[in-house]
Design goal:
Length: 319
């Protein structure tokens, strides 16, 4: 590998991530002519786009999905969160590695794996990547009826997703599994990107910091660069309380799922998470570091199945 390629490669991303190298903006602009108008040299003289502009960010991510994943029909209301594709893909790849650790180093693929996505969102992004990369089946839940309708439209508009992704409305915002998963259903892993902020004020402060990092400018009335309606970004108690609710409820579904998991953005929340998992008698807990750009985060995964039960699960579902 050349020194130039090393310099341009995003080495913090997973080795199987399609976006480890610098974006090919020339190729992306051919797919999305509207994006071309926003490609300009940055302060280093390198062609880039304005990552502080939510319109541009959406155009970029639509082009990325088309170019690297072959997804041509991906749209959702502008008011909803536009997910950064590389970071979302990393979660899926790390989960694939987690499953492979219990499967002799082989990632179980295709219909052998069913993944439950808590908070699928209007973009349906995690199921999209999981289906295109590994052929997994997905159940996606969301409390917002418009988000479910948007995710379902994406499924309907893409032949590859039909029969692979099921969208379900979660009517109780305090529940993760109750109401959308029945007692007989099995899923191999659950994933979640929880709301980060506990209040609108906290969300605005976070956005101000992000925009200053991106543009170097201080904005008095910030616009979220990845958009997002309130329930995607804010919940009572923030990330801390949301994850603790998932942990408590996961115990009730301990035999329905092999691995439960969630993103944890705030490192300060880890101590309390580990304490809750110990209280609920999780058999095994793993923390998987992740990073995109200058941001560090992590996945916390846990299972209630003992070694004998894990082996039985693999023999029954992955072989």
């Amino acid at each position: 590998m050349s020194d130039k390629k090393n310099e341009l490669e995003k080495t913090r991303l997973h080795s199987r991530n399609k976006n480890r190298e610098r974006y090919d903006l020339h190729a992306l602009s051919k797919i999305s002519p509207a994006l071309a108008a926003h490609i300009k040299p940055n302060k280093f003289g390198v062609n880039s786009v304005d990552f502080a502009n939510p319109v541009v960010v959406k155009l970029l991510n639509k082009a990325l999905l088309h170019h690297y994943y072959g997804i041509k029909d991906w749209d959702f209301p502008d008011e909803n969160l536009c997910p950064p594709i590389p970071g979302r893909a990393d979660y899926i790849h790390h989960i694939a590695d987690l499953l492979s650790e219990n499967n002799f180093g082989r990632v179980p693929k295709g219909d052998k794996v069913t993944c439950f996505d808590i908070g699928v969102g209007a973009s349906c992004i995690y199921p999209i990547i999981g289906v295109t990369e590994y052929g997994w089946n997905f159940i996606g839940s969301d409390i917002d009826i418009k988000s479910i309708a948007s995710a379902q439209k994406i499924v309907n508009d893409n032949e590859a997703f039909k029969g692979k992704i099921t969208c379900r409305r979660q009517e109780n915002p305090k529940d993760a599994f109750y109401g959308v998963i029945n007692r007989e259903e099995k899923f191999d892993v659950s994933i979640c990107n929880p709301p980060f902020h506990a209040s609108a004020e906290e969300a605005q402060k976070g956005t101000l910091r992000k925009l200053k990092n991106l543009s170097g400018k201080t904005e008095k009335t910030p616009q979220l660069n990845f958009a997002g309606i309130s329930n995607e970004l804010i919940c009572d108690g923030g990330e801390h309380k949301f994850i603790h609710n998932i942990i408590r409820e996961s115990k009730k579904f301990s035999n329905n799922c092999y691995w439960f998991s969630t993103l944890v953005s705030k490192q300060s929340n880890l101590k309390g998470i580990y304490k809750s998992l110990d209280k609920e008698d999780a058999f095994e807990v793993k923390t998987i570091p992740m990073g995109t750009g200058n941001k560090s985060t992590r996945i916390v995964a846990w299972t209630f199945l003992n070694m004998e039960e894990q082996k039985a699960w693999i023999d029954a579902r992955w072989k």
